[in-house]
Amino acid sequence: MEEHMANDHTSSIPGELPNPSARGMGSFRTGTGLLLVPGIFSLILLFSVDIITTEMIIALGGSELNRLMAGVVAYPVAHLALKGIVLVYVTGVCMWAEKKITQSGVAAMAIIVAFYVVVALHNMSVLHVMMMTGA
């Protein structure tokens, strides 16, 4: 089996480049896995915006609408810790997926970043309305 896996990235023709979409580490060898790095930094920024805006909304008298997160956001350190755990988990899953199928981890990261952009925009719009109404 190890011999078969070792041959996934090699060519039987001398001088021919390996297939970058082959199973395993192909995408990291060709550099496409590095596209996860901007996604990771984007998630760090978006998680920070989510935490800060959520704390501001609660301080102004608002509440967390997500029932699963309501108990967590009551404790800012727990909120920060949970976002950190989610970041590590998402990064690990996307890296694993990228190793298995080229561009799959990048696509998953893009979808997750897009979701958190919506979350951040929603929180900012709630803050805007609260400040305009004097809440």
From TrEMBL:
Keyword annotations of the record? Membrane, Transmembrane, Transmembrane helix
Domain DUF5658, chain residue ranges per copy: 43-127
Pfam families for this protein: DUF5658
Looking at the UniProt entry, the stretches that span the membrane are: 33-53, 73-94, 106-131
Task: List the protein's name.
Answer: DUF5658 domain-containing protein
> Whose protein is this, by species?
hydrocarbon metagenome
